[in-house]
Structure formats: structure tokens, C-alpha cells
Design brief:
single chain; alpha+beta; Ubiquitin-like (UB roll); N-terminal domain of TfIIb; 2 domains; 5-stranded mixed beta sheet; 3-stranded antiparallel beta sheet; globular
């Protein structure tokens, strides 16, 4: 495909036809905030924190999905853009618990001066118990921002299980299994790919959840070691997160040619046998 020429923040840039504005921004090392976007998932345009100002457009456009066009003139840090990003971050952080988001997200909130406290603390989304109905992972929807990543990973982008989706509309919209049954009664195959893409900690390894509850989770003491999954011959790459000589969770690199960050139930959760070297039976 041919290259097209566009202007971003007053600088001309060449971008591959068919790529997105976000791709072009990243090539220019412009830190564009994203919450619902992931290179391995189809863009769904729901978080709206990546919006940019496009000359001639009536509204701000999502950089994660808008394709580049020749002659585009884009501003990524105008007052209009900053105001929109600040408001989106404030609304999200005022309605859900975003304390477990990455330091990068907290950095964006500082950069745009987001003050979620000004909307008050009486929000319905936070007031719900953690769903613990299996031994592998928990669902804490008080942290869910409805980014749709888990839905996409459970669907055609990765697992094709379709165990979860978005139920309800408007303020009642929420992530749910079919007929709102527990995970053990749903179509879930416990691949954990929804955990791997969740940006807020709404979906979490039960091992991590239990350690956080006990006050023993400490990422500063953890190391990450890459290895190949031992369960079959596919060659999936594993990232073993180890704390105090015990594996506490398993992830996979997004840029790995075999997994693209996705694993099966054995690769993601089948590490407990490593901790049972001295066990009998």
C-alpha cells in the first residue's frame, strides 16, 4: 500500500495508507492516551480518550480507528482535545475504582489535570461485591470501565467462545454472561484472555486477588521470566511473574508471533503444579 502525507501538530508525516491516526502519532512518539485500544483487538471506539482534532471535522475523531487520509491536518494537544480527554478521565475515575490502572494511566490523569472528585462519591457502579465463583479468576466490576476488551478477546478476535457480552443499555450497561449465570454455568473455558486485556484490574487472577487482600502482593519484589509453555507443541510464550520463589500469575507478550498475548487455560492457569514439588499424592 502507498504512503500518504498528513500533518500532525504542524509537522508533516508519512503514514501507510490504511493505518490509523494513532499509528501515525506513535511513529512520531506522541503519547496518545488509550484505554479501549489494543493492537491485537478490533477497535471499538468506546473510551474516547484518544480523540484528536481534525481540521474540517465537526467533532473530535478517535485516533485509534480513524484511518489516515492524504492532506489531513491534525492537532493532538489543542485546548479542545485536552478538555475532552480531561473530562472523559474524570467521568471514568469518578464512577469506577481506577486505583489498579497502570502508572501510565495515572500519569495521563496528572497531565490533563483530571479531578474526578468534583463529581462526588455517590456512584452506583462502585457499590457491588466482587464476584468469586471459581478458583482461577475473580470479577470486580466496581473497576469496570466498559472498554469492551474482554468481550472482544472472548469473541472473534481471540477465543471465539462468546461467553461474555454487554448487557443492558445506558446507565444499566454492564459486562455479563449469557442470562447472567455464574462462570461455571456459562460457556467460559477459563482461557483468561479477558484478564490479559483488562486495563483496570476488574478481571484478576484469584492468586493476585487473594494476595492483595492479605497485603502480600508486592510488584517491586516480582521478577518476570519468559519461557515456553510445557503443555503442548504449539510453542506459546509465557511470562512467569514470580514473587518469593513462587509463580503468582502468568501472562504472554502481546507481540509474540504465536500467542499475540493470548493463552489457553493450561498455559495461563496451569502453573500450580510448580508450587507442589514437596506435596504427596
Amino acid at each position: 500500500m502507498a504512503d500518504v502525507t498528513l500533518t500532525i501538530d504542524g509537522r508533516e508525516v508519512q503514514a501507510r495508507e490504511g493505518s490509523t491516526i494513532l499509528d501515525a502519532c506513535r511513529r512520531m512518539r506522541i503519547d496518545t492516551p488509550t484505554l479501549c485500544q489494543l493492537d491485537t483487538l478490533t477497535p471499538v471506539n468506546v473510551c474516547r480518550v484518544c480523540v484528536v482534532e481534525l481540521e474540517g471535522a465537526r467533532v473530535l475523531v478517535p485516533a485509534c480507528s480513524r484511518k489516515v487520509e492524504a492532506g489531513m491536518k491534525i492537532r493532538t494537544d489543542s485546548e479542545r482535545v485536552r478538555h475532552s480527554r480531561r473530562l472523559v478521565l474524570e467521568l471514568l475515575a469518578s464512577s469506577v475504582d481506577m486505583s489498579l490502572c497502570s502508572p501510565q494511566v495515572r500519569g495521563w490523569m496528572d497531565r490533563y489535570g483530571a479531578a474526578p472528585g468534583r463529581f462526588g462519591k455517590q456512584v452506583a457502579t462502585v457499590a457491588q461485591p466482587v464476584k468469586v465463583d471459581n478458583d482461577l479468576y475473580v470479577r470486580d466490576y466496581s473497576r469496570c470501565i466498559l472498554c469492551y476488551k474482554c468481550v472482544e478477546a472472548c469473541g472473534v478476535d481471540a477465543q471465539n467462545t462468546f461467553a461474555i457480552g454487554v448487557a443492558g443499555r445506558g446507565f444499566d450497561a454492564h459486562i455479563s454472561t449469557e442470562f447472567d449465570v455464574g462462570l461455571p454455568d456459562s460457556a467460559c473455558v477459563y482461557c483468561g484472555n479477558c484478564i490479559g486485556v483488562c486495563p483496570t484490574g476488574a478481571l484478576m487472577f484469584k492468586s493476585e486477588h487473594d494476595m492483595r487482600a492479605a497485603g502480600t502482593w508486592d510488584e517491586s519484589k516480582q521478577t518476570v521470566t519468559e519461557t515456553v509453555c510445557p503443555y503442548c507443541g504449539v510453542g506459546c510464550m509465557l511470562e512467569l511473574h514470580v514473587q518469593e520463589n513462587s509463580i503468582v500469575k502468568v501472562t504472554s507478550p502481546l507481540d509474540h508471533s504465536v500467542t499475540s498475548g493470548h493463552l489457553c487455560v493450561k498455559g495461563r492457569f496451569g502453573f500450580e503444579f510448580v508450587q507442589r514439588r514437596g506435596a504427596k499424592g
